[in-house]
Write a structure and sequence with these properties.
2 domains, single chain, globular, 449 residues, Hypothetical protein af1432, alpha+beta
Length: 449
């Protein structure tokens, strides 16, 4: 958990408090490593402030406890709220509502977004409204969705339908390139919790990436890739398929890159919105300084997938695959996911793996392909955002330049991400105004063909 630090000395941010104040807040101060200082006189009679533990107030006499002998950051409570309690603070009133009230709230959000689509509004204002609405929808889903089939009622099914409609509106509005750029600006200012921030950023970025991919498909993506594949990408795929016959080592076979219809993109965007909802039941781990725990980390994809299956229904298999398999890592031993577990449990006959990306769930489920196209697109977005996230307590955030280098030089090089998807995403980021080196991305490698 982050230590709550005071401002620099001399900036007037330290507040004198009594020993009684410290003792009243002792458990919170100690549990969150809030900095505390004891005011003392040195040998020359000058006052000084030495750092102390909050428990030091216990040894004070009753008279001393009433005196202002300590200094503390005057904003420590608000900082603590922002650092760890903001998600709970937002979720708590929603949990107190009835299912009917939550359904009414999500219906109002759906109506507001539907009206916003037809309004002449500044892109940044519209983008912020989309992100606020989608963020609120995510929280309403967290407060409503059930993991046990017997607990799912008409209210949860209504929540699912209304959420689909909200995703549809957001996706329709994302057809405007200016608005997509606005979404990037909007999610930079989100401040409602580390995990929720990540989900919203990934949703906005992934939705734009889908549109970017479709635009490229209309402008001869497959034909361009076919031309440059032998010189640019062949070696990367040889690492993935060292034993595959040479006649299959062509882009048209290895990569299924079809056009995506609106309903498909809506399904994929829904999966992106809910991809980390399984983390929401264990934020004490995910938003703390706790040591790496593979079991807790891996569990979230199974919970996310299960919540979608139980509340949205089996007809949302693609969304379930995005939530359950965005850590698939192209079948690398370090990856994990729902489909991998399903294969182990059912022991269904597997066909030979002969392609990298399948555009349909069956091609991935049978083992024909290493990955499912939209899931692997989400994986690229998810990893990039995790690398640049400044709120992660367990690692230093990377710059965008460092993050895309990590995607290519580490993740692609170790066969965990598809090289073409990574390059396409780099170009997408650049189009949104992210400053990146010119010598990376699909456009650079294909010579602008």
């Amino acid at each position: 958990m982050k230590s709550i630090q005071p401002a620099l000395t001399g900036q007037g941010n330290l507040l004198p408090v009594t020993g009684n104040y410290v003792l009243e807040n002792l458990e919170v101060l100690e549990g969150n490593s809030v900095k505390l200082y004891r005011v003392l006189k040195d040998s020359q009679g000058a006052f000084k402030a030495d750092p102390v533990t909050p428990s030091s107030a216990k040894v004070l006499s009753a008279e001393e406890r009433g005196k202002k002998l300590f200094l503390i950051d005057k904003d420590w409570k608000s900082k603590l709220f922002m650092a760890q309690a903001s998600f709970d603070a937002l979720l708590e009133p929603l949990l107190a509502q009835s299912p009917q009230e939550r359904n009414e709230a999500v219906h109002d959000l759906k109506t507001m977004l539907a009206d916003l689509k037809n309004q002449e509004t500044e892109p940044l204002v519209k983008a912020q409204a989309i992100m606020d609405s989608v963020s609120r929808t995510f929280l309403l889903n967290k407060a409503s969705l059930k993991l046990k089939p017997q607990e799912v009622t008409v209210h949860e099914k209504t929540m699912a339908r209304e959420t689909e409609a909200i995703v549809s509106s957001a996706l329709e509005m994302a057809d405007d390139p200016t608005l997509v750029t606005g979404l990037f600006a909007a999610f930079q200012d989100l401040s409602n919790g580390q995990t929720v921030n990540h989900v919203m950023r990934v949703f906005a970025s992934f939705t734009g990436f889908l549109r970017h991919y479709n635009s490229l498909h209309q402008h001869r993506l497959s034909q361009t890739l076919r031309k440059v594949f032998p010189a640019v990408y062949l070696e990367s795929y040889r690492r993935l398929f060292p034993n595959l016959h040479a006649r299959w080592m062509i882009s048209d076979h290895l990569l299924q890159f079809p056009a995506m219809g609106f309903l498909q993109m809506r399904e994929y965007a829904l999966g992106a919105l809910l991809h980390d909802i399984g983390k929401m039941g264990n934020l004490d781990y995910f938003e703390s300084d706790s040591a790496y725990d593979a079991q807790q980390i891996r569990q979230h994809v199974f919970l996310s997938s299960g919540l979608i299956l139980m509340n949205y229904g089996s007809e949302h298999g693609p969304a379930r695959l995005l939530a359950g398999d965005h850590h698939n890592a192209l079948g690398h031993p370090s990856g994990y996911g729902v489909s991998r577990l399903d294969k182990e449990r059912t022991q269904r006959p597997q066909v030979e793996t002969v392609r990298c990306l399948a555009s349909d769930p069956d091609g991935f489920a049978t083992g024909e392909a290493l990955g499912y196209l939209p899931s692997e697109m989400l994986a690229v977005v998810d990893i990039y955002d995790a690398m640049i996230d400044t709120s992660r307590t367990y690692k230093k955030a990377m710059s965008p330049t460092e993050a895309v280098a990590f995607l290519e030089d580490t993740m692609v090089a170790s066969n965990k991400l598809d090289p073409v998807l990574v390059d396409l995403y780099i170009d997408f980021l650049r189009k949104q105004g992210v400053e990146l080196p010119d010598n990376r991305g699909f456009d650079y490698k294909t010579g602008g063909l």
